[in-house]
């Protein structure tokens, strides 16, 4: 099963969110439209969906640098509920790049520019051995 089955970005996962991430310099971004199937409380996007989108954005920052990582830590602040029918923009950028550890900050804002949630993540670069153990195949 390839990356196409990623729950957040995979094209082929029928249960997935199908978010498409784009690069802008060392930043990445994606748009996401909140539908009823994404809720927890009535009309409010589930915090796990919000977290998954922010986590994914944080993983795409090192991917955009040709680095394969896993999330070692993820801290999320939920500022304002995302409502059904809202489209949000998720953006992430690196704040510190070490050999093994990439620090990333991410935000989710609505079309009016209102901050919905923010995240700080520690992304750990996987060695080739770790990638192989996880079944991750890379071209490099
Ligand atoms: C825009 C377009 C870009 C192009 C895109 C192209 C292609 C796209 C393709 C595919 C995309 C598809 C999918 C995206 C994929 C995923 C997205 C979601 C990401 C996740 O959701 S992923 C799942 C959740 N995640 C885990 O499932 C991790 C579980 N966990 C572990 O796998 C281990 O825990 C690990 C590896 C983290 C560490 O294990 P380990 O054995 O390698 O590490 P070890 O303990 O030896 O530490 C080594 C050094 O890291 C330091 N260290 C360790 N932990 C630290 C921490 N928390 N904070 C600070 N430092 C830390 C130590 O202090 C030491 O430092 P030192 O070397 O200095 O001593």
Automatic annotation (TrEMBL):
The keyword DNA-binding does not apply. Residues 46-115 form the Thioesterase domain. It is a peripheral membrane protein. Signal peptide: none annotated. It is found in: Cell projection, Ruffle membrane; Cytoplasm; Membrane. Keywords: Apoptosis, Cell membrane, Cell projection, Cytoplasm, Fatty acid metabolism, Hydrolase, Lipid metabolism, Membrane, Transit peptide. Pfam families: 4HBT (PF03061). SUPFAM superfamilies: Thioesterase/thiol ester dehydrase-isomerase. PANTHER family: ACYL-COENZYME A THIOESTERASE THEM4 (PTHR12418:SF19). This is Acyl-coenzyme A thioesterase THEM4. It comes from Alicyclobacillus fodiniaquatilis.
């Amino acid at each position: 099963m390839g990356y196409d089955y990623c729950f957040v970005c995979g094209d082929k996962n029928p249960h997935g969110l199908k978010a498409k991430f784009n690069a802008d310099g060392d930043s990445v971004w994606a748009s996401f439209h909140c539908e009823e199937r994404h809720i927890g409380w009535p009309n409010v996007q589930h915090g796990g969906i919000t977290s998954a989108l922010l986590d994914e954005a944080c993983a795409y920052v090192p991917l955009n640098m040709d680095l394969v990582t896993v999330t070692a830590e993820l801290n999320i602040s939920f500022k304002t509920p995302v409502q059904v029918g809202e489209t949000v923009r998720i953006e992430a950028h690196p704040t510190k790049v070490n050999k093994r550890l990439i620090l990333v900050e991410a935000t989710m804002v609505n079309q009016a520019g209102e901050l919905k949630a923010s995240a700080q993540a520690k992304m750990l670069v996987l060695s080739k051995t770790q990638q192989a153990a996880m079944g991750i195949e890379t071209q490099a």
